[in-house]
Amino acid sequence: MYLLDRDPLWSTLKPYELKFDPPPGFPKSNAVPRKNDGIVVKDIRGREADFSIEKNGFAIMGVDSDITVQDFVRCDGDELAKRYFKPLADTLKAFLRADRIQIIDFKVRKSHPDFPISTGENYEFSQPATLLHIDTSPATTTELVSRFNPESPELLTRRYQYVNVWKPLTGPVRSWPLAVCDSSTVNAAKDLQARDIVFPDGALETFQVHPSSAYKFYYLSQQQTDETMVMPQSDSAGLTGVPHTAFPNPWAAGETGGRESIESRALVYYKD
């Protein structure tokens, strides 16, 4: 996994990453993560019920969907909403006992045969992420709630979350599965470093993660297409988001076929 070294520099300078080509001589990022080897990732298969969002920051949720990578190529938004996103929102609402689910974004990933080696070409789909990270910060989540609900400012007075739902599009997943870090082992004030991801038309704040011997990592072996990993990334109640990343599964070394997955990002609202 790639993590951001602790450095006094970050007390006065904020890390950034540009999602566009800057002028000559201007670096696309000022924070280069370092590869960390020897990290232990424990399997939760057979004891999924032992882990919960309240205790660990993540949980396994069943879904009923046969959506594929090619569906995201040939289907329009209305069909995708009907076949996947609306049922997902309904399932997530019941699972979290929430009042409202608002899916705002998604990303389909399909690993190139040469992954993790980059060919330098533009891929049709995003590649698995190898940087340990959290998708959003509390400040960005608050901004998103306002942006997507300009006529409902009262939502900011209720508890709300930014939740990532990670689902395989082919299974079982063996190559580059998803690892999650138990949020109860993360000291948000010391272990997380806010960074800006800058686009031509704006920016969003996410977190990179510093190394720590306290972390506990888990994954679900042989994860199937009807199993999702639910990971709150921000919570107005103050709970720490869940760092996550893909990792090279030693049990799948030399296998071909890669990994196909979708992560859906949702704003979740509660009555109380």
UniProtKB/TrEMBL annotation:
Q: Which protein are we looking at?
A: Methyltransferase
Question: Record's family?
Answer: Belongs to the asaB hydroxylase/desaturase family.
Record's keyword terms, sorted: Oxidoreductase
PANTHER family noted in UniProt: BLL6449 PROTEIN, OXIDOREDUCTASE AN1597
User: From the Swiss-Prot or TrEMBL record, what is one GO molecular function term?
Assistant: oxidoreductase activity
What are the leading ranks of the lineage? Eukaryota, Fungi, Dikarya, Ascomycota, Pezizomycotina
